[in-house]
Amino acid sequence: MPTPIETWYTDIPPITRIYITAACFTSLAVQLGFVHPLHLWLNYDRILYDFQWWRLVTNFLYFGPISIDYFFHMFFLARYSRMMEEGFFRNKPADYVWLLVFSAGALILLSFIIPHAYIPFLGSPLAFTMVYIWARRNPYVRLNFLGLIVFRAPHLPWVLLCFSLLFGGQLPVGDILGIAVGHIYYFFEDIWPRDSASGGKRWLETPRIM
User: Fold this and answer.
1) Record's family (predicted)?
2) Which helix (H) or strand (E) segment is 143 a member of?
């Protein structure tokens, strides 16, 4: 008879399950000393001149050493990625993979071109992108944050942003990047196609190759 943890794990939709599993194994490998974070982070010089292309992927898989903060980030990634995959992207795996690929690429680009926005590991901003998109697509859902305040889902990213700013003591650049990329996707997928000027064209439509 499967344990509750096994049941929970097998119930996670496949794309989210693969991502969560890869992220857990990456952090475990670092924790056990099999790999160093310096071999995983988003180092543009290593990518461009030493052809270490794996860094474009591995920087999204490491969420820091195993700690309370690590489990906090993994919880948000698992929760909102799962709700996205089971909700808006049910039976649309290619569309969800494309969302992740686009978001990852946009985060890498923004981190590269915006001054002072460089972040060596972009897994947390990617999770924040998922939170933002889910929140904007659920305008009437009411949430309770830490039992203290009740608000509608679209306010969730901003509540989390203020929470990070309050307890982090510095500007949460990663969260801001996640919100920016999430809004870009939301605008071109949910708002722009309904505008008469768009002609109904979806600029971020999933490529046929996927």
Assistant:
1) Belongs to the derlin family.
2) strand 142-145
CATH of residue 161's domain is 1.20.1540.10
- HSE-CB at 118 with a 13 A cutoff on CA atoms is 9
| pTM of this structure | 0.90
Please list, in sequence order, all residues whose beta carbon lies within 8 angstroms of the beta carbon of residue 173, skipping any fewer than 6 positions away: 116, 117, 119
Please name the residue that has the structure tokens 């998922």: 130
| Residue 59, in any domain of the structure | yes
- Give the tens place of pLDDT for each residue, 166-189: 776 777 888 899 999 999 999 999
What does the pLDDT look like over 16-56, one tens digit per residue? 999 999 999 999 999 999 999 999 999 999 999 999 999 99
Which residues have C-beta within 8 Å of that of residue 15, sequence separation ≥ 6?
A: 81, 85, 93, 96, 97, 100
